[in-house]
Design a protein that fits this description.
The structure holds two protein chains of two kinds. By secondary structure, chain A is an alpha/beta fold. The longest helix of chain A is centred in the middle third of the chain and has 19 residues, at 817-835. Chain A starts with a helix and ends in a 10-residue tail after the last helix. Chain B is mostly helical. Chain B has one domain (8-223): Transmembrane di-heme cytochromes, Chain C (Fumarate Reductase Cytochrome B subunit, Up-down Bundle). Classes of the chains: A alpha/beta, B mainly alpha. At the A-B interface, β1 and β2 of A face α1 and β1 of B. β2 of chain A pairs parallel with β1 (225-228) of chain B.
């Protein structure tokens, strides 16, 4: 029908009226409504998800119409979990539902982009007849040419070009770097594999093949709770969200469930219907507080004091005043509370020292294997000291006794491990406990009951159980006399009573006391169903391990860990990479060569962005008098240098020379094999001819040269100390308000007066949107979005594995990450054939956790070969030195095939080895074989991403029943316990990519994890440790209250102590005129915002429209009033580290003295110039500078030994404080003027030099 | 020899008006039926509202009143005017109203034109046709304003013939009895104005001008609530007896 003719019936349109003519019924054309119907019509539905770090892992329907993504909607077809649990679905939040915007948005990266000046330089060199590598070398050789593109990073200037050309440039840069400086000068950063596992694997595989280093993310994000490896020898394992429903008492702290756990939050609500009591601890009235029965407003950064006070109550009432039978049994079997600790004389009293070992006894208590690694308890039955099963000494070198059965290892007789010797004590002595509260003693002496004992060396030793020490450390009065114990809970002078904690935390003492009592009482009655849900807000502090250990102490006191409905529930930026065992060999090219280069990123950035040059905290500031003080005078950076030298932590570049050249040199000098090459290297290290790069990080030869970032946002979300990245690493416009100098007091590091600017030759970003990282890159490659590629996704929060699928083909010039790196490898191989050929590489590999090398350094005693002038021994006093042959011309052939080592050596995870030959042969049929001539001809193909997905799943115990069988068999042998019943029903299951495209699949129980998939309990961490008696992977095999390593003694952290937020002294450099005008000094909290897809992706039109449309900071109403700030006023945030511009949100929700700036508000939308520096304002990260903590660096010692993303320095940022002041609207400058030579030259704020 | 009727003058003022009107009506109809999503004002006020309150109102009020003036002044049959006022009064009226509203529209139009061409957000988001049509309207308007001195000159000599001959010509077009001879002798400036004015009708269906057809006058009188029927045959629906059961 014609719209026009329809209009001609104008006068008969109205059919009748109603409501006295206020309404009319019309009869008119309604065809226009079809537009709305067409909006929701579609051609097909494809299952995919969002590769975002929210841990949601929600399966989505992607609706495709005319070859375009029309919209997305939650999938509702998860397999059921259990009859007595609420459903998982619908999973997926409103923010995720907005993702399809990005596919066709203005800042989608459509074509390869390159810095125009760089392209001009490169083309000119190529035109003059040079080949790509020569052309790149020519640009790098000329400082003037290099300067042209390096110093304008972040200032626009991109031009569009072809994939072939940028691949050639990147490959040339890599080859030049490998040849000139060494492959370890190339670095890759990509976060959290679990969210898109194949994408992560792509870059990591390419980089590992060429010998580059991959950087960690979990510790760098400060999401890694260092306390978890310290306590359990486990990176992180947590309950699935459904297990909240099984809990009957929940404390939520530092985690806003509705905001960041949106698809799971319903379990918390349903638990409340179940009668569960919920307590919320948070400084602001956060969204999760509405779910709580009690809100405990806590001063930011003081959470450990609150938990220590609750522990004080639980310990006193359930262990001292009465002995709860459930708690007693749990403590004896699964915690280190009965473990015996030696005391060391300190002044008039004692301090606690290392744990007693079998080797301290005459005849080693009958232990011949690793007696130095077998800890001791006192057996109440035989009234003697015994070495019980399960300590780390039983894990390596023997089989069958590494379990938590309460048995004397020597004769396998049942024992009853004694918690306290108070009834049978030989003496009571005064023991000093480190303490860090301002205005109180730094060593607090309390009386402890001890036993006396004659050691094998003839000395008499005093020993006390961890329990007796721990009770004293909590300040509980046991009638032993002596000072510093509390008469009652109201004693505010004794740490850690509720009254004392109330002073520190601001929480009412009564609330702490009641919550502590209820938490324990509930756990006692339910056998551990008390839970603490915790998150980033308490983990992002410098002393986060203390906070977390405070929580863990309470949980272990109450027997909650490993019980369904109980334990810790830490959900911070980590998603469970369930098929890890099948994935790791592909991701790090372990199928071709081992070991890979893996780096703890925090230390990497601390050194290479020169944040160490600005360090205001001295090592001695945070030492305790209880330690031996071997390293007094060290700076924080010195500690890191020592840790790398001793093989505790990795450090890349490895040395101040090219490892390829070093290998050549060793061979020339007569070395023939790995051992003799290592000898050549240690000789040079000892003579000082060779040194680690961290000892002189600013020397030109020690700079990182090429960096790849994919799936991440290093300069935006992830760039702590962002402005230092800009100043030193990238060498461009920055807001750093100071010159490096505070960090100029090191014993092990060479100081250079000029801080380098522009260390990187090439910065490559692979992304689908132009965020801050892209803006500062030299080359940006367009990648497929989450609806345009095939990949795998798993999470902690539910037990399913499900895919990302290619709903539409990648838009414009984009390709999946797997294809991008495959094509790069192809171009690289072609050029490398000529320029590199086959080379030998020496990889320095730290002593790894879950390997026999975790027994490298007995008793936790520090042996620093460099300092003490003794012989460095790889694998003992320094990193292992492994020889790796790199056939650079075959990089592509290797990339596209599953390599031969999977058959030759097999696969392994967490110290368990098994054979993968059967799976390898199956994959030849499943994926077909490589037909490209070369080293990989006839091997299982990894050319396409679906093949990679299937290879990962076929090799992982979680997705392949036969592999589960093999891995559990390996573990059963170690523990001497038959674990096969855990997966028996699924031994034949093999999950494939096509299966999970049909429906998410529940994974199979695997020894990789400490929980189980079962019809009877929900997944929870530590379950198999408690119920299957598999030891925690710690020194004692038990959960640790006590850390006996020397550095923990030095820093006073053998037991959990309260350590207040660290003063970073970051106001020194703020200009006087700002300090003169009205301003606020505020704590700077950076939690996740509501209007963004988790930690990123707030720059969609929809998200921006929902709240303020640009960066903002929340401040308290009263604070705002006092300095004349009204809601939505512009404000500048400033401290020594940089400046940031945003609008103020004035709210009653926020406590005074606190500000909340939501994480990762991108730099590309509505960010004006800073009024102080006249440079573009930064993000929330512009105000931060990371500080590293020496106790996180400890290695070579069981649970403290290094492993990638498991242990290492964490990039804390919450201790930051800011000054906030109002900016008038007319002073806002958008800096949209052209780039003049003057502006280009003025990279630092006025008055700040390069130094 | 009789002069040929195939002159440029006759083509422009005898044939061209019908081409313009045909394109105007048929084009508008087709566009309304086929391209509903393009039937809109294409307002750019969201992108930049600087001076828009002033410029848009001046321009629209001026143009609308000029249009009314042309419509009434030129299409009203001469005998009606003759009954009300002498021709010379008609001319003075036309001069006065044209001057006032012409200048109103001109001032608004100039601001809009500069905004269209020199405000980067507007200029970059404009179609070619947006710039063209505004420029064309402004030229037409300027020609219209330039006729005023001439008209004043005529009126000063008490000569109202130009107005009456223009009206007669237009009416001859409307009566489908075109007679370009009526305006054979008028000044060039009038002819230019006429040509540009007619062309506005020609380009009308291809530009944002179509929004003129859809001036939302019904908003002034419509009811608060509109209920649209499903367009099943209206009489067959017993709207008030929903409770009736099938047995009854």
């Amino acid at each position: 029908m014609s719209h026009f003719l329809d209009r001609l019936r104008f006068f008969e349109k109205v059919k009748e009226t109603f409501s006295n003519g206020h309404g009319v019924v019309t009869n008119e054309d309604r065809k226009w409504e079809d537009a709305y119907r067409h909006r929701w019509q579609h051609d097909k539905i494809v299952r995919s998800t969002h590769g975002v770090n929210c841990t949601g892992g929600c399966s989505w329907k992607i609706f495709v119409k005319n070859g375009l993504v029309a919209f997305e909607m939650q999938q509702t077809d998860y397999p059921r979990t259990r009859e007595d649990l609420p459903n998982h679905e619908p999973r997926g939040c409103q923010r995720g539902a907005s993702f399809s915007w990005y596919l066709y948005s203005p800042h989608r990266i459509k074509h390869p982009l390159i810095r125009g000046r760089l392209l001009d330089l490169y083309r000119a060199e190529r035109k003059s007849g040079k080949d790509p590598v020569e052309a790149w070398a020519a640009i790098q050789a000329d400082p003037n040419k290099r300067k042209q593109y390096v110093h304008v990073r972040g200032l626009g200037g991109f031009v569009r070009t072809q994939c072939d050309e940028v691949n050639e440039i990147i490959a040339a840069a890599n080859i030049y770097t490998i040849k000139k400086w060494g492959p370890d000068r190339i670095f890759g950063f990509s976060p959290i594999p679990a969210m898109s596992q194949i994408s992560y694997a792509s870059g990591a595989r390419y980089l590992s093949l060429i010998g580059a280093a991959c950087g960690s993310f979990y510790d760098w994000y400060c999401d890694l709770p260092a306390a978890s490896p310290q306590t359990w020898g486990e990176q992180t394992d947590v309950p699935e969200s459904a297990d909240w429903y099984n809990s009957t008492y929940i404390i939520v702290t530092g985690s806003s469930l509705p905001t960041t756990r949106t698809p799971d939050c319903h379990f918390a609500v349903e638990a409340r219907y179940n009668g569960t009591k919920v307590i919320a601890m948070s400084p602001d009235y956060g969204e999760h507080v509405k779910l709580a029965d009690l809100w405990m407003p806590v001063n930011p950064g003081t959470d450990s004091a609150a938990f220590l006070a609750m522990g004080h109550v639980a310990l006193k009432e359930f262990y001292v005043d009465k002995q709860d039978p459930y708690f007693q049994e749990y403590a004896r079997k699964y915690t280190d509370l009965p473990i015996q600790v030696m005391l060391r004389k300190h002044g008039d009293g004692y301090v606690s020292d290392r744990c007693l070992r079998a080797s301290d006894f005459t005849g080693n208590l009958g232990e011949t294997n690793n007696p130095q690694w077998k800890t001791i308890v006192y057996d109440e039955k035989t009234k003697s000291f015994v070495a019980p099963n399960g300590s780390i000494g039983f894990r390596w070198g023997e089989e069958g006794k590494w379990n938590l059965l309460p048995k004397n290892a020597a004769n396998q007789q049942e024992i009853l491990a004694e918690l306290t010797c108070i009834a049978g004590k030989d003496a009571v002595v005064s023991v000093g406990f480190p303490h860090f509260t301002q205005g109180e003693d730094d060593l607090v002496f309390r009386n402890v009951p001890v036993r006396k004992l004659k050691l094998a060396n003839g000395e008499e030793a005093l020993v006390a159980s961890v329990f007796d020490l721990q009770v004293a450390q909590y300040g509980i009065d046991r009638g032993l006399g002596g000072p510093n114990v509390a008469k009652d809970y109201n004693d505010a002078n004794v740490a850690y009573t509720p009254a004392w904690a109330s002073k520190v935390t601001g929480i009412k003492a009564m609330d702490l006391e009641r919550t502590g009592r209820e938490f324990a009482d509930n756990a006692s009655k339910t056998h551990g169903k008390s839970m603490v849900i915790m998150g980033a807000a308490i983990n992002h502090w410098y002393h986060n391990d203390m906070t977390y250990r405070g929580v863990m102490n309470l949980l272990h006191i109450c027997g909650c860990v490993g019980q369904s409905g109980g334990g810790w529930a830490h959900y911070v930026g980590q998603e469970k990479l369930r098929p890890q065992a099948g994935w790791a060999p592909i991701a790090f090219a372990l199928d071709w060569q081992r070991p890979p280069r893996q780096m703890n990123s925090t230390s990497y950035w601390y050194f290479h962005t020169d944040q160490w040059r600005y360090e205001t905290i001295k090592g001695d500031d945070i030492l305790s008098p209880a330690g031996k003080g071997k390293n007094k005078g060290y700076s924080l950076a010195d500690y890191n240098v020592a840790a790398v030298r001793m093989g505790w932590l990795p450090g890349f570049p490895q040395w101040n020379t090219n490892p390829l050249d070093l290998a050549d040199e060793a061979i020339k000098a007569g070395a023939t094999d790995e051992a003799s090459i290592a000898k050549h290297v240690t000789g040079k290290l000892k003579s000082g001819e060779l040194d680690i790069s961290f000892a002189d990080p600013d020397a030109e030869g020690n700079w990182p040269r090429n960096i790849f970032v994919w799936r991440g946002n290093l300069i935006g979300t992830s760039g702590k100390g962002q402005q230092y990245f800009l100043k030193h690493l990238l060498g461009t416009q920055n807001n750093v308000l100071q010159e490096g100098g505070d960090g100029n007091n090191n014993q092990l590091i060479k100081w250079r007066d000029e801080g380098p600017a522009g260390k990187l030759d090439l910065f490559v970003d692979i992304n689908f949107r132009l965020n801050s990282t892209g803006a500062y890159s030299d080359i940006v490659l367009p990648t497929a979005t989450w609806y345009e590629k095939n990949d795998l996704n798993t999470t902690d929060m539910h037990p399913f594995i499900h895919p990302l699928s290619e709903a539409v083909s990648p838009g414009w010039d984009s390709k999946s990450d797997w294809q991008i790196f495959r094509e790069l490898a192809r171009v690289f191989s072609g050029l490398a054939e000529k320029h590199l050929g086959k080379r030998k590489d020496i990889v320095a590999f730290p002593m790894q956790h879950d390997s026999p090398f975790e027994l490298a350094q007995p008793f936790g005693q520090v042996t620093d070969w460099h300092k003490e002038g003794i012989e460095p021994v790889p694998g003992k006093t320094m990193a292992l030195l492994k020889l790796v042959e790199r056939d650079y011309g075959s990089t592509y052939n290797k990339y596209i095939a599953l390599g031969p080592l999977m058959v030759k050596i097999g696969n392994n995870v967490k110290g368990l080895d098994w054979n993968t030959t059967a799976e390898y042969e199956e994959l030849k049929l499943c994926n077909y074989t490589v037909r490209v001539p070369g080293v990989s001809y006839g091997m299982p193909s990894l050319e396409e991403d679906i093949s990679v997905c299937d290879a990962v799943m076929r090799m992982a115990p979680e997705t392949c029943g036969p592999v589960a069988h093999k891995s559990w068999t390996a573990l059963s042998k170690k523990t001497g316990i038959d674990h096969h019943h855990l997966y028996a029903a699924r031994e034949e299951d093999k999950i494939t990519f096509r299966d999970i495209q049909v429906q998410p699949r529940k994974i199979i129980t695997a020894p990789t994890w400490s929980g189980i998939e079962s019809e009877h309990v929900s997944y929870t961490s530590g379950y198999t440790n408690i119920h299957e008696h598999i030891p925690f992977r710690t020194l004692t095999g038990r959960a640790h209250f006590y850390q006996d390593h020397e550095w923990f003694q030095d820093f006073g952290e053998t037991f959990c102590v309260f350590r207040p937020p660290q003063d970073l002294k970051s106001f020194d450099k703020v200009p006087a005129h700002i300090l003169k005008k009205p301003h606020l000094k505020l704590r700077f909290l950076t939690p996740h915002g509501k209007w963004g897809i988790h930690s990123s992706y707030q720059d969609t039109l929809r998200m921006l429209t929902l709240f303020r449309g640009g960066p903002h900071i929340w401040i308290s109403e009263i604070d705002a009033q006092q300095v004349g700030i009204k809601d939505n006023d512009w404000v500048e945030l400033i401290n020594s580290n940089g400046t940031s511009m945003c609008r103020a949100v004035v709210s009653q929700r926020i406590a005074r003295g606190v500000s909340v700036m939501h994480h990762s508000q991108e730099k590309n939308v509505n960010v004006p110039g800073s009024v102080t520096t006249n440079k573009r304002g930064g993000t929330h990260n512009a105000l931060t500078r990371v500080i590293i903590k020496p106790t996180n660096m400890v290695g070579g010692y069981v649970q403290l030994a290094y492993s990638f993303n498991y242990m290492g320095t964490v990039g804390c940022n919450r201790d930051t404080e800011i000054i906030l002041h109002k900016v008038e609207d007319q002073d806002i400058k958008w800096l949209e003027a052209p780039l003049t030579p003057e502006r280009e030259a003025q990279r630092n704020p006025a008055g700040i030099g390069t130094r | 020899m009789k002069e040929s009727v195939f002159t440029l003058h006759n083509l422009i003022f005898g044939v061209y008006p019908y081409i313009c009107l045909a394109v105007f009506f048929i084009g508008s109809w087709l566009r309304f039926d086929r391209e509903q999503y393009t039937w809109k004002t294409d307002s750019t006020q969201l992108l930049s509202k600087d001076n828009m309150r002033l410029a848009s109102n001046l321009f629209h009020i001026g143009v609308l009143l000029i249009f009314c003036g042309h419509f009434v002044g030129l299409l009203t049959p001469h005998f009606i005017f003759a009954a009300i006022m002498p021709d010379i009064t008609h001319q003075y009226l036309a001069i006065t109203a044209g001057t006032i509203f012409g200048i109103t529209a001109f001032l608004g139009g100039v601001i809009l034109w500069f905004r269209r061409f020199f405000n980067p957000r507007i200029s970059l988001t404009s179609r070619w046709s947006d710039k063209f049509v505004l420029t064309w309207l402004m030229i037409t308007l300027i020609f219209g304003l330039l006729t005023i001195p001439t008209s004043i000159g005529h009126a000063g000599h008490g000569d109202p013939r130009v107005v009456t001959s223009l009206a007669e010509w237009i009416q001859s077009i409307v009566y489908l009895y075109p007679n370009p001879a009526f305006i054979e002798g008028v000044d060039l400036i009038f002819k230019l104005h006429l040509f540009f004015g007619m062309t506005v009708f020609l380009i009308f269906p291809f530009t944002r001008l179509v929004h003129i057809w859809s001036a939302p006058f019904t908003y002034l009188t419509r009811s608060y609530q509109l209920v649209r029927t499903k367009r099943v045959k209206y009489q067959e629906v017993d709207r008030y007896d929903l409770g009736k059961s099938p047995e009854q």
